Amino acid sequence: MRFTDKLELVIDEYEDNPGRPAWDKQVVCYGQVHSYIRVTLPAEPHLKTDRKLTAILALVTLCKTNGEDASWVPVWYHKMELVRAFDVVTIDCVIGQVKVSDRWGIIDRSLGSERAVMHGMWEPEYESEDEHD
Hints:
Strand 6 and strand 7 (103-107) form a beta hairpin. The protein is mainly beta and 133 residues long. It has one domain (2-124). It contains no helices and seven strands. It has strands at 2-12, 24-41, 53-63, 76-77, 80-87, 91-100, 103-107. The N and C termini lie far apart (46 Å). The protein is 0% helix and 49% strand. The chain has a seven-stranded antiparallel beta sheet with strand order 4-7-6-1-2-3-5, with no helix packed on it.
């Protein structure tokens, strides 16, 4: 198993089409953090900042998961995207990955979904203690 991070991002749905108006969409992304960078920008009147701004950025290679949330459904991926920089506040939690054949499965327990999902196996039926006659 290897570890990676879960990022919650707000992206422009039409970022690849500059002629369309921006449409913000919240997505869940998973990726591997390679390093962290501290960036300080000086005060700039053109940007309407009257003091310097400091941010910590994470250099992340995103997994190609189509924005699916592994805390709700099983999520698999085969490929990684290019390295991108994100503000560290977008990192929600550390998650795990496990390799099965030629793909990786994401293990995300951030919403209390601690149970394993075993496809192709039956789930036992448990009798409630409250249902006895």
